[in-house]
Amino acid sequence: MVKERARILVVGGGYVGMYTALRLKRRLRQELRRGEAEITVVTPDAYMTYQPFLPEAAAGNISPRHVVVPLRRVLDGCRVVIGEVRSVHHAERTVTLTTLATEDEGTGPQKLSYDEIVLAPGSVSRTLPIPGLAEHGIGFKTVEEAIGLRNHVIEQMDIASSTRDPAIRDAALTFVFVGGGYAGVEALAELEDMARYAARYYHNVKPEDMKWILVEASDRILPEVGAEMGRYTVTELRRRNIQVLLGTRLKSCKGRVAVLSDGQRFPTRTVVWTAGVKPHPLLDATDLPRTDRGRLRCTAELTVEGHAHAWAAGDAAAVPDLTADEPGRDCAPNAQHAVRQARVLGDNIAHSLRGEPLETYAHKYAGSVASLGLRKGVAHVYGRKLKGFPAWFMHRTYHLSRVPTFNRKARVVAEWTLSALFKREIVSLGSLEHPRAEFELAAGGKPPYEPPHDPKGSS
């Protein structure tokens, strides 16, 4: 039995936030029913995004609504607040937060008190001060970015098909991806696969007309699958006429021209930035200890070091890896650890409230799988190396087993089945990003955006 009424605040609705709240809901079922505990989840979005499926959503293999999990449905019995925590004052056990109503209310951020806090805000894209990146770069971390990128690629093919200017055509059909990790390689491979298929429906655009370029600063890609599988991936991508430029950096994309550190210049309308992540900026506004890399310094029990009643896991937390060969190493900030950490974290909060001993988190990294497009992939799992169709099948099977709720699993399987039986959808719905544009114009106002034009090089 919980000693006293406990107000548990979960900051973030991603892997750690959702799974921790779900675990707490189950472990504290009786306490919640008796009113001895309450769980509040503060998150900027009303859903959890299953990020490994973003490349397939971008390629049109899965509907975007099926790669997200609605938090209110999954976390019934918890209070879900759509808003953002702006600062954490753990010494006072309070946070300041803003909600969708804050601006209209005009009262400023509100304070929320808690007894136990779980910090799981996740990470954001790690960008560099590269000229033109903020104006022209496209991220690939959210479902909105994934679908926006799909619409953008098809739109570029439409531009190339309709223009008579060779410079415009060349820029429209040049796609530059920066970052050779999972996000960059899988996004590029899936979108190139989709665009190659879509080209058959254009009378004057052929797959060989398109330039797909992967820029990676280190000397290898996909380090998680090992050196051998990384080399195989480079060979496989180059067979598809994808330029893989290792040991190369993006110096500028100002004026819609990608300038690389090796001196190459590519006029392009598409620069996709997937060069890593960094801890959420919220951590800068806390009074909790952090590592040199900005992550919260945590114990193996997933408590924040030196601070009772503060817990963390996932991308925002530096959790000691008890299974590592080298002492002092932290768990990698990936979904494999985040989901497992969330279970232990939920159990430990319940143990703490009941005065029971805490568990330590220990999970040996099992390996990695990556998709390289339809029926193509690489995998390095438990020492076994797979490539081609077996790796792709393992990728789909593994992630299907991990996507939350039976509802989502069934819908994803149904879409995969339909995509195997019927042709791909290659429609661009870019206008969804500006749904009021046509009405505003008809009503005599100015459109809220200007359609992209002059891709020759003007910024």
From TrEMBL:
Enzyme Commission (EC) number: 1.6.5.-
What SUPFAM superfamilies is this protein classified in? FAD/NAD(P)-binding domain (SSF51905)
What UniProt keywords are attached to this protein's entry?
FAD, Flavoprotein, NAD, Oxidoreductase
| Ranges for domain FAD/NAD(P)-binding | 7-341
Keyword Oxidoreductase listed? yes
Chain positions covered by the region annotation Disordered: 440-459
Gene3D superfamilies given in the database record: 3.50.50.100
Give the family from UniProt: Belongs to the NADH dehydrogenase family.
**The protein's name in its UniProt record:** NAD(P)/FAD-dependent oxidoreductase
Q: Which organism is it from?
A: Streptomyces broussonetiae
